[in-house]
Amino acid sequence: MYELKITSQFAAAHQLRALVGGCENLHGHNWKVEVTVVGDTLGDDGLLMDFRVIKDHTKAILDDLDHKFLNEIGAFKSMEPSSENIARHIFETLRDRLDVDGIRMGKVTAWESESACASYTES
What we know:
By secondary structure, this protein is an alpha+beta fold. The protein has one domain (2-120): Tetrahydropterin Synthase, Chain A, CATH 3.30.479.10. It contains 2 helices and 4 strands, in the order E-E-H-H-E-E. It has helices at 51-63, 83-98; strands spanning 2-14, 27-39, 103-113, 116-120. It has a 4-stranded antiparallel β-sheet, covered by helices on one side. Strand 3 and strand 4 (116-120) form a beta hairpin. Helix 1 packs across helix 2 (83-98). The protein is elongated and about 55 Å long. The model has no long low-confidence stretch (mean pLDDT 94).
């Protein structure tokens, strides 16, 4: 199995409404996002997928989140904009764009700080 990984970043604010202890207040992060795509077979060009394709689709999704108040964005109006849900949202949106014959989403990890992250994958 081959695994490709790219990283990208975005900055945004959010409030975790269900928490008590500080995170329920408006605050922001500079998120680092890791996207992993997996597959078993390389194309005739020796590639699983061009990194640029993964980067371009990831950028399009992150541009919708960058410098925004996440609680006001469609996907997060009805669910907490936690790192867990951010990772899942990015994963599911990318899955719809990148899953092609023999290639599938592996995992998305959203780092909200250098020491804290959440990942989403499907088995």
